[in-house]
């Protein structure tokens, strides 16, 4: 190589590229020489936690990723499952936490842009977006600023590109005060025979870079996402990319025109670590090498160094590998959409990663070392000993009123109506959203088939904080319950693991345990994990987030005309609780609001009962026995009943004291009303269905308790609550609205 | 009937409009923004989206598209042109309709069900709707607040060119239920010849009960019927 000085880097230089001295020594030893500064930067990006998964990869191997319907497991841009009719559902969730904490609008917008590209790179037309969001307490002006900015950014990108944002979740908790979480999920559909992969092959084939010109934005984005935030983080704003959804729309349409085109050997989007990350992965998957000439990449600004071109995270760019003779025809497809493209590289037979700047060779690294060579991170210490869970009894204080507690919960930011968020997102474009946001899961019908896709994200971090393994299992079950409530079979999972600094033993072990929990729940429920993302270092100045497992669940409604919704429907219908009555307040929203704490054991989980409950609800929906089904989650039975009333705009009369077993109500009112016991659904049904429902519940060995009937304009729980719907609606709808 | 559907870069209701046209038993014909050729269509829909990104002002760039020159001529010759959402914005920028569509009064994007009262049932687009009937049609826009000077608004009212007005579900005035704060709750207007309609709500999203409303389907049927009548008249005149 010419003109490149090789001197060992200083500690400051290593910090800049997020490498430890140990990693550096490993690199130099493996290379048998000192790397130059460009090579160092490239390795730093690809060995960052964000790209290399060096902490989580050994742990993630235990997840079940196979199953009869899995067409593509982890390793490609997204996972894919067979949904029948010759179609594949392609989906993935990904975090954009660090950028959003610094610049909420662009951070969230480019998170949406990035996950969209992961889907259409595989030839799939995106049909839905979901967003899982976490912020600090909403009363604080800075949190309101982040929340508003993130919601505006998601809408700004998704609305412009014309993909409906149909769901997600939103929590506020102290643990996210300095590290908000923005996880975006995208779901696409493609004919299986037209699916594209990002596996390069054929030495001599050319690499075409399409879309936006390359600028200085987002340099070090991947490394930035792999360190803890601190007071200097605001100065990292240049590491946040700027999105152009219009350009992405054109890129998407052009790429979709090429889905299934045999001339496209591979397609790979540019995400974390820019050109460097995408070209290395593309070649490495195909077991070949790649040579890139940065001088051939069109730039947005002059004077960019090879380092900047390789590491830029400018958005809305895509790579295509094709035979030289096919390049002009492919370029013509992009030109029709006014998209510029440059041939920037060539596939090599030997597995080397070579970068040239015109005639100068400026980087030469073995691909294996670059992509797979990051030394895995071991546990930083032994498992810390945890105190045993303390009791969670919250005795009702004198003067306690169940009605007041219910209003308090319904009007809280975590349980209030999400309409002020989703009405800012186009959730209907595509003419396919047949269950709108606001219920348990959204359902998007699939054009030309009888099926619908039920989509949800879920993850209660309070449970994970109390018991990582158990809480992660609950997250999977809860997400599955969300899709089951619409009448969908859960078919596959994507997950986003948001954790604090894994160099702390407690965090590392929580990550370890949470992955085990996801694996166990998914194996028990026979739902494979086909894609996912890990976001670590969600920590600022030692204040780390609660371990936050977000599960993205895809379910299939085989006959979309039989889909079920959560709102009560008809005067006189019966209401029943499926699953245990329970009275568990550990980790509950009620506990948060009443005591401000998070303690005690999280709710128990019987995974076999969970399975049986899913089967029962699905059978009941398919047999048309149900008028509504709603997952009982945060806020317990009382909140679930109130939500079903509000969604259906009709009241309910409930009696919980008729319990024939030994579970008395007196003294346990709060636990029974607001406890968050698992494996439960609230259902309503025409009276004629009552006998058949009980027979069905018997066959599935599932507890089914008749608790009341639908009707009127009030919510009554005998002896405890009597409130007009209008009052419930007012607090519920106002929960997220800024008070002047 | 053959419904032309304009496709600008950034248009996203083109596929939904094509779906609604097919449901109504008619044929969608996609029209590319760089072309002048209207391919012999019987009417033209300018669908929703963010044509050319709408980074300047919604519709401000699209009005200069080659296709729009042909659409303007087509409208000038009495052809039916139907602008929906971004299409309405483009029609205003192209001066085929008066007024302008500005940022919603909430300063936020709104996607939600709205209810429209039919204020003029004597246009090709609405003559199958009862005068005063209320249609449920969703909106999805950030810049849908219709504004015009008082004289223009008065003229629109006097000439019965306000076709749709936002109301509440029960037909009472929208008040603070307006999705965008449009002046006089105007949701859709026609030109003086009544052959060009602009409306912010999306009827193509309301053509099936499964999508929450089928009230939009009648508009597609109305257009097809009007075209058929015209065709019959023209054929009769030619014979």
Roughly how many Å is the radius of gyration of chain B?
16 Å
Count every beta strand of chain A, where a strand is a DSSP E run of 2 or more residues: 28
Indicate the structural class of chain A.
alpha+beta
Biggest sheet: strand arrangement of chain A: 8-10-7-11-9-12-13
Termini Cα gap of chain B: 21 Å
Written as H for each helix and E for each strand, in order along the chain, the element string of chain B is EHEEHEHEEEEHEEEH
Overall mean pLDDT score of chain A?
A: 93
**How many helices of chain B?**
5
**What fraction strand of chain B?**
15-25%
Number of strands of chain B: 11
Shape of chain B: globular
Helix count from the secondary structure assignment of chain A: 25
**What composes the largest sheet of chain A?**
7 strands, mixed
Distance between the first and last residues' Cα of chain A: 64 Å
3D shape of chain A: globular
Unreliable runs of chain A: none
Largest interchain contact: A-B, 30 and 32 residues
The strand line-up of the biggest sheet of chain B is 2-1-3-4-11-10-9-6-7
In the predicted model, the low-confidence regions of chain B spanning at least 5 consecutive residues are none
Provide a short characterization of the protein structure.
By secondary structure, chain A is α+β, with helices and mostly antiparallel strands. Chain A has 25 helices and 28 strands.
What is the fold's blueprint, element by element?
The complex is a heterodimer of chains A (740) and B (239).
Chain A: H1 11-16, H2 21-31, H3 37-46, H4 49-52, H5 57-60, E1 70-72, E2 79-82, E3 87-95, H6 97-102, H7 104-120, E4 125-135, H8 141-161, E5 165-172, E6 181-191, E7 206-211, H9 221-224, H10 245-257, E8 266-269, H11 274-285, E9 289-293, H12 306-311, E10 317-322, H13 327-336, E11 341-348, E12 352-357, E13 360-366, H14 367-372, H15 402-410, H16 419-422, E14 433-435, E15 442-445, E16 452-458, H17 461-466, H18 468-484, E17 489-498, H19 505-525, E18 529-535, E19 539-540, E20 543-544, E21 548-557, E22 574-578, H20 589-595, H21 607-622, E23 628-631, H22 636-648, E24 652-654, H23 669-674, E25 681-685, H24 690-699, E26 704-710, E27 714-717, E28 721-724, H25 725-734
Parallel strand pairs in A: 4-5, 9-12, 17-18, 24-27
Antiparallel strand pairs in A: 1-2, 2-3, 3-6, 4-6, 7-10, 7-11, 8-10, 9-11, 12-13, 14-15, 15-16, 16-21, 17-21, 19-20, 22-25, 22-26, 23-25, 24-26, 27-28
Helix pairs in contact in A: 7-8, 7-10, 8-10, 18-19, 18-21
Chain B: E1 2-7, H1 14-23, E2 27-32, E3 43-46, H2 66-76, E4 80-84, H3 86-93, E5 100-102, E6 110-118, E7 134-141, E8 145-147, H4 150-158, E9 162-167, E10 186-190, E11 196-199, H5 217-238
Parallel strand pairs in B: 1-2, 1-3, 3-4, 4-11
Antiparallel strand pairs in B: 5-8, 6-7, 6-9, 9-10, 10-11
């Amino acid at each position: 190589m010419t003109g490149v000085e090789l001197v060992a880097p200083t500690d400051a230089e290593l910090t800049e590229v997020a490498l430890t001295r140990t990693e550096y020594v490993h690199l130099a030893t493996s290379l048998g020489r000192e790397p130059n500064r460009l090579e160092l930067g490239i390795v730093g990006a690809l060995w960052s936690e964000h790209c290399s998964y060096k902490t989580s990869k050994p742990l993630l191997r235990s997840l079940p990723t196979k199953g009869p319907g899995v067409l593509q497991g982890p390793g490609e841009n997204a996972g894919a499952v067979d949904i029948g009719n010759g179609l594949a559902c392609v989906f993935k969730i990904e975090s954009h936490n660090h950028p959003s904490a610094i610049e909420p609008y662009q951070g969230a917008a480019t998170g949406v842009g990035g996950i969209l590209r992961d889907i259409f790179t595989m030839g799939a037309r995106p049909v839905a977006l979901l967003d899982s969001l976490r912020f600090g307490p909403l009363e604080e002006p800075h949190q309101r600023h982040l929340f508003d900015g993130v919601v505006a950014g998601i809408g700004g990108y998704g609305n412009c590109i014309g993909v409906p944002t149909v769901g997600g979740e939103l929590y506020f908790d102290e643990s996210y005060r300095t590290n908000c979480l923005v996880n975006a999920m995208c779901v696409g559909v493609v004919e299986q025979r037209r699916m594209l992969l990002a596996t390069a092959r054929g030495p001599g084939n050319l690499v075409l870079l399409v879309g936006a010109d390359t600028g200085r934005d987002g340099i070090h984005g991947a490394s930035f996402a792999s360190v803890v935030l601190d007071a200097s983080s605001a100065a990292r704003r240049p590491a946040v990319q700027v999105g152009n959804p219009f350009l992405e729309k054109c890129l998407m349409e052009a790429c979709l025109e090429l889905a299934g085109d045999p001339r496209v050997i591979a397609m790979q989007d540019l995400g974390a670590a820019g050109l460097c990350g995408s070209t290395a992965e593309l070649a490495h998957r195909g077991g070949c090498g790649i040579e890139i000439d940065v001088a051939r990449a069109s730039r947005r600004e002059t004077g960019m160094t090879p380092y900047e071109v390789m590491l830029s995270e400018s958005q809305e760019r895509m790579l295509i590998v094709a035979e030289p003779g096919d390049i002009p025809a492919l370029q013509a497809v992009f030109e029709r959409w006014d998209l510029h493209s440059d041939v920037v590289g060539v596939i090599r037979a030997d597995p080397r990663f070579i970068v040239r700047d015109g005639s100068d060779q400026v980087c030469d690294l073995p691909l294996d070392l670059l992509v797979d060579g990051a030394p895995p991170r071991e546990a930083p210490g032994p498992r810390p000993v945890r105190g045993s869970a303390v009791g969670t009894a919250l005795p009702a204080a004198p003067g306690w009123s169940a009605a007041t507690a219910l209003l308090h919960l319904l009007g809280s930011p975590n349980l209030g109506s999400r309409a002020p968020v989703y009405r800012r997102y186009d959730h209907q474009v595509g003419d396919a959203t047949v269950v709108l946001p606001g219920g348990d899961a959204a359902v998007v019908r699939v054009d030309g088939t009888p099926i619908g896709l039920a989509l949800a994200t879920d993850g209660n971090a309070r449970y994970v904080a109390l018991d990582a393994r158990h809480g992660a299992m609950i997250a999977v079950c809860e997400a599955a319950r969300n899709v089951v409530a619409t009448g969908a079979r859960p078919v596959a999972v994507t997950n986003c693991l948001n954790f604090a600094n894994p160099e702390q033993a407690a965090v590392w072990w929580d990550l370890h345990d949470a992955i085990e929990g996801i694996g166990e729940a998914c194996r028990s429920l026979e739902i494979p994990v086909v894609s996912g993302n890990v976001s670590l270092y969600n920590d600022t100045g030692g204040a780390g987030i609660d371990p936050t497992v977000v599960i993205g669940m895809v379910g299939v409604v085989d006959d979309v005309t039989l889909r079920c919704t959560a709102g009560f429907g008809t005067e006189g219908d019966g209401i029943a609780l499926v699953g245990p009555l329970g009275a568990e307040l550990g980790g509950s929203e009620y506990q948060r609001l009443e005591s401000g704490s998070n303690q005690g054991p999280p709710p128990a989980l019987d995974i076999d009962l969970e399975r049986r409950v899913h089967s029962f609800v699905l059978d009941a929906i398919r047999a048309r026995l149900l008028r509504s089904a709603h997952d009982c989650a945060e806020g317990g039975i009382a909140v679930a009943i109130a939500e079903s009333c509000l969604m259906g705009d009709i009241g309910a009369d409930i009696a919980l004291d008729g319990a024939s077993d030994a579970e008395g109500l007196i003294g346990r009112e709060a636990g029974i009303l607001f406890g968050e016991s698992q494996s439960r659904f609230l259902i309503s049904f025409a009276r004629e269905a009552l006998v058949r429902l009980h027979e069905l519940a018997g066959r599935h060995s599932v507890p089914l308790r008749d608790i009341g009937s639908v009707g009127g304009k009030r919510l009554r729980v005998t002896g405890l609550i009597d409130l007009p719907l209008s009052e419930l609606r007012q607090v519920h709808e106002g929960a997220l609205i800024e008070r002047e | 009937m053959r419904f032309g559907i304009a496709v600008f870069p950034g248009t996203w209701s083109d596929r939904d409009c094509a779906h609604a046209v097919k449901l109504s038993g008619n044929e969608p014909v996609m029209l590319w923004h760089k072309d002048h050729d209207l391919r012999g269509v019987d009417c033209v829909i300018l669908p929703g989206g963010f044509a050319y990104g709408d980074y300047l002002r919604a519709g401000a760039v699209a009005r200069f598209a080659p296709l729009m020159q042909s659409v303007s001529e087509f409208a000038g010759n009495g052809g039916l042109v139907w602008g929906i959402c971004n299409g309405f914005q483009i029609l205003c920028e192209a001066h085929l309709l008066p007024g302008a569509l500005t940022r919603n009064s909430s300063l936020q994007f709104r996607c939600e069900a709205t209810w429209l009262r039919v204020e003029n049932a004597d246009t090709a687009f609405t003559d199958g709707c009862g005068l005063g009937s209320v249609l449920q049609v969703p909106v999805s826009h950030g810049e849908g607040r219709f504004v015009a000077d008082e004289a223009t608004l008065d003229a629109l009212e006097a000439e019965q060119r306000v076709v749709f007005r936002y109301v509440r579900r029960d037909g009472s005035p929208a008040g603070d239920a307006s999705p965008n704060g449009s002046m006089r709750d105007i949701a859709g207007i026609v030109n003086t010849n009544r052959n060009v309609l602009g409306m912010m709500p999306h009827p193509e999203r309301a053509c099936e009960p499964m999508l929450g409303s089928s009230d939009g389907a009648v508009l597609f049927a109305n257009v097809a019927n009007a075209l058929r009548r015209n065709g019959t008249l023209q054929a009769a005149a030619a014979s």
